[in-house]
Amino acid sequence: MSSPTETERGIEARVAVFRRYAGKDSNSFMLSKTEFPTFMNTELAAFTKNQKDPGVLDHLMKRLDMNSDGQPDFQEFLNLIGGLEVACHESFSCSQK
C-alpha cells in the first residue's frame, strides 16, 4: 500500500484536530462553548493573541454556527479552517505581486 498523499495527510490532520477537542464536555460531533476557545487558543494561538476585542471568540463561534445550535460541528469547523486557508492564500498571492 502506498503512503498517503500530502492532501490525504492534510485531511487526516484536520479530522484529528477536531476530534482532539470535540467531545470533552459531551458531544464528540461538536465543539462546546468551552472546547471552542480551547481549540482556538491552542491551535490558532497567533490569531487569538492578536485580537483586540475580548469577545472575538464568542462572535466567531456565533458566526460559524450556521444551524444555530450553539456549538460548531465538523462542517462548521471546516468553514473556519477553509476561510483561514483562503485568507492565507490571498495574502500570499498579494505579496507575490
Describe this structure in words.
The chain is mainly α and 97 residues long. It is 63% helix and 0% strand.
SSE arrangement:
Layout lengths: L5 H16 L13 H9 L1 H5 L6 H9 L9 H22 L2
SSE order, one letter for each helix or strand: HHHHH
* Overall average residue pLDDT: 91
User: For the record, what CATH class applies?
Assistant: Mainly Alpha
Low-confidence stretches: none
Gyration radius over CA = 15 Å
Give the number of helices: 5
Q: Class by helix and strand content? A: mainly alpha
What is the global morphology? globular
Classified in CATH, the superfamily is: EF-hand
**Biggest β-sheet: count, sense, barrel?**
none
C-alpha termini separation: 42 Å
CATH architectural grouping: Orthogonal Bundle
Short description:
By secondary structure, the chain is mainly alpha-helical. The chain is 63% helix and 0% strand.
